[in-house]
Amino acid sequence: MKMDKAKVDQFIKWLKEKWSNGQKCPICLHDDWFVGDKLFELKENEPEIPQTPSIMPVASVICKNCGHTVFFNALHIKLMDIPKQGGQNG
Ligand SMILES: [Zn+2]
């Protein structure tokens, strides 16, 4: 899911506030990052109940030098609304 510009700006502002170790990549020590403008989903690996896995929406930041990718919980940063509980069919 693509974020609108306001959400991307909100994410960048949040990163600047929270990322306090010089913003260096822990793998290659470069500090040049690409801030993704899409949200992704991490899905719980639960083969016993494939219809109802837990899903964590995440925003990503990618090191331009080595490709190391960092995920942040999009709900925590309020980049999307918290899904309503319960289904339409009872
Ligand atoms: Zn790197």
Features:
90 residues; alpha+beta; 1 helix; 28% strand; globular; binds zinc ion
Task: Walk me through this protein's architecture.
The two termini are 27 Å apart. The chain is an alpha+beta fold. The protein has a 3-stranded antiparallel beta sheet with strand order 1-2-3, covered by helices on one side. It has one domain (5-73). The protein is 16% helix and 28% strand. It has one helix spanning 5-18; strands spanning 33-43, 55-63, 69-73. Residues 25, 27-28, 30, 63, 65-66, 68 line the site of zinc ion.
What is the structure about, briefly put?
This protein has 90 residues and is α+β, with helices and mostly antiparallel strands.
| Residues in β-strands, percent | 25-35%
Give the tally of structural domains.
Answer: 1
Structural class by SSE content: alpha+beta
Report the order of strands and helices.
HEEE
- Rg over CA atoms, rounded to whole Å, is 16 Å
Major sheet description: 3 strands, antiparallel
Distance between the termini: 27 Å
Name the ligand types.
Answer: zinc ion
Question: Fraction of residues in helices?
Answer: 10-25%
- General form: globular
User: Low-confidence parts lasting 5 or more residues at pLDDT below 50?
Assistant: none
Task: Quickly count the helices.
Answer: 1
Determine the mean pLDDT. Answer: 88
**Total strands:** 3
